[in-house]
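Supplementary Methods. Inverse-folding protocol.

Structures were first reduced to a C-alpha cell string of length 670. This string, shown here, constituted the complete conditioning input.
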C-alpha cells in the first residue's frame, strides 16, 4: 500500500469512527421496573444497570421494597452480555453493558416504560419496557463486530400470583451484510445479594432439582459460609441460631447477643434461564441452553476460575467453556464426588459466577432468532423469615423451593396465554405505584377520635379510593368489595397483621375531599407501618404496594398532672426494644407530658446534653425516626449518648401551669 493509499484509508476509517462515535451517543435508555416484588433497572433485553437514585447498589432487589430506602437485598449483582460468531471465516466476539466507554449498542427505538397498572388491559403486562437495540458493525476503533437489532420487551406484574419473576422477550435480526455462523448469545450473572452487610463469602450454593431444573437450570440460594481455607468446615457462630444453622440465610442476630434484628436477609432462591419451549432451534435443530458455573474469586485455581470478561468477549473464549458443561447436579452432590481437576463441586464455587448461553445459530442477513429469558425467585412466607429463629433457618430452602416451583408454573401459564391474565384480577391497588424514595403511597398521621364517647388514640390513614364504577376487566362486573388494613411493627416487608376490614357499604362514611380518611385505633407509643389493599367479591386481593415508609406511633394524651409522666423504655439498653427494621431502634419516649413544655436532659454532673422543645400532644421522643432532625439519640452536640444515669427536667409552658416541673432519672445501659 502506498503512502497516499494509507492516508485515504485512514481518512475513511476516521470518518467511519466519527460517524459511529456520534451515533453511539444515542445510548439505550435504561428504565426501572418496580411493579412486582422483583425490582430491576435495565435495558429492554434485561441487561441490568445501576439506578440513578441508588448509585451504590444494583437495582435488582427482591423484594424490591426491602426497607425502601436501603436496597441491599437481592439475588444477583451485575450482568454482562456476550456475543460471538464467525463472519466470513473471522472469529468475532464482544460484550456490552450500558456504559458509554464500552457501549457497542445504540437505540434504534428508544426504551419506553409502559404502565398498565391494575390491568385495565388484561392482555398486557402490568408494567413493561420495550425498545429496539442496534449493534454496530465495527466499534470505535474499527474492530469488526456484528450489525444486528434486538427488539425486546421486559415485563413484570404485581398480582400476588405473578409478582415473583421477570419475563424478557427478545427477537434478534441480522442487519449485517454477511451471515453469522455459529452465533452464541450469552449472559453472565453473579448470583449473590449485592451489598448485603451480613453476607459472608463463599456461601452461595446451587441445586439441581429433577422436577424443574431441565427448564430453569441451577437454583441458587444462601447457605453456610465454606471458605476454601477451612477445607469444608463451616464458619462457627456461638450465638443462636448461628450455633445450629450457621449463617445460612444471613440471619441478623448471629453475631450479637440479644440482638433484635432476627430476620433472614437472604431467604430467597433464584433461577435464571432461557425458556426452552419458545427458543428458536439452533443450527443442530436443538433448543439448547448451555450452563456453566465458575468462581468469582481471583484466588481460585485456574480450573475453577471465571475466565474473565476479556476471554468471554472472544469467540474462542466463550466456545471453549461450552465444551465442558456444568454437570446436572447440585453443589452438595458434586462436592461429595469432587476430586482435583473436576469442574464442579469445589469450595471455590461457593462464590459463583453463572454463565448461560444459547446457540450455535447460523443467521443469514435479514433472518431472525427469538428467545424468552426468565428471572424467577421463590421464598418461604416472608412473615416467618422476618421473625427468624430456626423456624426460618432450617426450612427456608425447602419452603422457598416449593414457592419457586409455584412461580415457575405461573410463568409458564402466562407464556402459554401470551401474557394475558385470564382469571382472578383483583380491584385496583389504593396506590398507583410501589413506594420509592420521595414518594408517598398512603398518609399515616397520629390522631385521636371518640369511640363510644371515649377519646381513643390512634392514627389517621388517608388513601386514594378505588374509582367509582370500577368493573372487573375480565367479567365486566362491579365486584369491588372493600379495603383491608394491615400493620407491621417491623418493616414494610411484614409481617403484616390484618387489623381492619372496610366493606364497600361503609366506605362513604370515610370519604373526605375525594380521599378515604380512616381512623385506626392502636396502642400508644408503638410505631407501626400500615398497608391498604382492596378486595373483590370473590376474595381476590390487590398486592401490598400501598404503605407508609416511616413507622408512625399513636401518641399519649397531654396532661398537666406531671406525676403521670413516664419515660419508656427505662432503663434504655441503647436500643428501644423494637425490632430492627421498625426504624425506631433508638426510640426513647416521654409520655403523658404537658401540651407545651421544655425537656432538658443532664448528666449526673448537671452538664446539659439535650434540650427538647415540645409544642403539641402528650408525647415526644428522643431518637425517633420521625423526629424533626432524626437525631437517633444524639446530644445537642451531635455526639452519641454514653451509658450512665441521666437527669431529665420537664418544665410546663401551658397557660396557667407555667413553672410546673418534674424531675426524674433515665438509665442508659449497654
Amino acid at each position: 500500500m502506498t503512502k497516499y493509499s494509507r492516508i485515504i484509508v485512514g481518512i475513511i476509517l476516521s470518518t467511519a469512527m466519527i460517524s459511529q462515535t456520534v451515533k453511539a451517543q444515542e445510548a439505550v435508555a435504561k428504565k426501572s421496573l418496580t411493579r412486582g416484588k422483583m425490582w430491576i433497572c435495565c435495558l429492554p433485553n434485561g441487561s441490568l444497570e445501576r439506578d440513578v437514585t441508588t448509585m451504590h447498589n444494583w437495582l435488582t432487589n427482591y423484594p424490591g421494597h426491602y426497607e425502601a430506602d436501603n436496597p441491599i437485598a437481592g439475588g444477583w449483582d451485575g450482568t454482562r452480555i456476550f456475543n460471538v460468531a464467525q463472519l466470513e471465516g473471522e472469529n468475532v466476539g464482544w460484550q456490552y453493558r450500558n456504559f458509554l466507554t464500552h457501549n457497542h449498542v445504540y437505540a434504534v427505538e428508544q426504551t419506553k416504560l409502559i404502565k398498565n397498572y391494575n390491568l385495565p388491559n388484561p392482555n398486557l403486562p402490568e408494567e413493561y419496557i420495550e425498545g429496539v437495540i442496534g449493534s454496530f458493525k465495527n466499534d470505535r476503533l474499527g474492530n469488526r463486530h456484528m450489525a444486528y437489532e434486538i427488539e425486546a420487551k421486559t415485563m413484570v406484574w404485581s398480582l400476588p400470583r405473578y409478582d415473583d419473576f421477570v419475563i424478557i422477550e427478545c427477537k434478534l435480526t441480522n442487519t449485517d451484510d454477511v451471515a453469522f455462523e455459529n452465533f452464541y448469545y450469552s449472559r453472565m450473572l453473579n448470583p449473590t445479594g449485592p451489598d448485603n452487610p451480613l453476607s459472608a463469602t463463599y456461601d452461595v450454593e446451587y441445586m439441581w432439582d429433577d422436577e424443574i431444573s431441565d427448564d430453569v437450570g441451577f437454583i441458587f440460594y444462601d447457605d453456610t459460609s465454606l471458605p476454601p481455607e477451612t477445607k469444608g468446615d463451616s464458619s462457627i457462630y456461638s450465638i443462636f441460631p448461628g450455633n445450629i444453622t450457621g449463617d445460612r440465610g444471613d440471619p441478623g442476630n448471629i453475631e450479637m447477643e440479644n440482638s433484635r434484628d432476627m430476620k433472614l436477609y437472604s431467604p430467597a432462591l433464584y433461577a435464571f434461564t432461557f425458556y426452552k419451549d419458545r427458543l428458536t432451534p439452533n443450527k443442530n435443530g436443538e433448543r439448547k441452553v448451555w450452563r456453566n458455573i465458575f468462581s468469582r474469586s481471583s484466588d481460585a485455581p485456574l480450573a475453577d476460575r471465571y475466565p474473565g470478561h476479556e476471554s468471554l468477549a472472544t469467540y474462542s473464549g466463550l466456545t471453549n467453556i461450552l465444551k465442558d458443561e456444568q454437570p446436572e447436579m447440585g453443589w452438595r452432590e458434586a462436592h461429595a464426588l469432587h476430586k482435583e481437576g473436576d469442574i464442579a463441586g469445589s469450595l471455590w464455587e461457593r462464590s459463583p459466577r453463572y454463565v448461560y448461553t444459547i446457540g450455535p445459530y447460523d443467521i443469514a442477513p435479514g433472518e431472525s432468532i427469538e428467545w424468552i429469558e426468565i428471572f424467577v425467585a421463590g421464598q418461604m412466607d416472608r412473615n416467618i423469615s422476618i421473625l427468624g429463629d430456626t423456624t426460618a433457618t432450617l426450612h427456608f430452602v425447602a419452603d422457598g423451593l416449593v414457592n419457586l416451583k409455584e412461580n415457575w408454573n405461573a410463568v409458564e401459564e402466562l407464556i402459554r396465554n401470551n401474557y394475558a391474565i385470564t382469571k382472578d384480577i383483583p380491584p385496583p391497588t389504593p396506590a398507583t405505584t410501589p413506594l420509592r424514595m420521595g414518594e408517598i403511597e398512603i398518609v399515616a398521621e397520629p390522631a385521636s377520635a371518640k369511640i363510644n364517647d371515649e377519646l381513643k388514640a390512634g392514627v389517621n390513614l388517608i388513601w386514594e379510593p378505588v374509582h367509582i364504577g370500577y368493573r372487573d376487566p375480565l367479567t365486566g362486573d362491579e365486584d369491588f368489595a372493600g379495603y383491608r388494613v394491615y400493620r407491621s411493627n417491623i418493616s414494610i416487608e411484614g409481617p403484616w397483621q390484618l387489623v381492619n376490614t372496610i366493606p364497600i357499604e361503609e366506605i362513604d362514611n370515610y370519604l373526605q375531599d375525594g380521599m378515604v380518611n380512616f381512623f385506626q385505633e392502636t396502642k400508644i407509643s408503638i410505631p407501626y407501618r400500615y398497608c391498604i389493599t382492596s378486595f373483590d367479591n370473590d376474595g381476590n386481593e390487590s398486592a401490598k404496594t400501598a404503605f407508609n415508609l416511616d413507622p408512625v406511633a399513636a401518641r399519649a394524651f397531654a396532661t398537666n398532672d406531671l406525676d403521670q409522666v413516664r419515660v419508656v423504655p427505662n432503663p434504655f439498653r441503647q436500643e428501644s426494644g423494637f425490632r430492627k427494621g421498625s426504624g425506631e431502634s433508638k426510640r426513647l419516649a416521654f409520655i403523658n407530658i404537658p401540651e407545651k413544655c421544655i425537656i432538658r436532659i443532664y448528666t449526673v454532673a448537671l452538664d446539659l446534653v439535650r434540650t427538647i422543645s415540645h409544642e403539641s400532644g402528650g408525647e415526644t421522643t428522643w431518637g425517633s425516626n420521625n423526629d424533626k432532625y432524626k437525631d437517633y439519640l444524639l446530644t445537642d452536640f451531635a455526639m452519641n449518648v454514653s451509658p450512665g444515669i441521666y437527669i431529665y427536667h420537664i418544665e410546663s409552658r401551658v397557660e396557667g401551669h407555667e413553672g410546673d416541673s418534674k424531675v426524674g432519672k433515665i438509665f442508659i445501659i449497654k
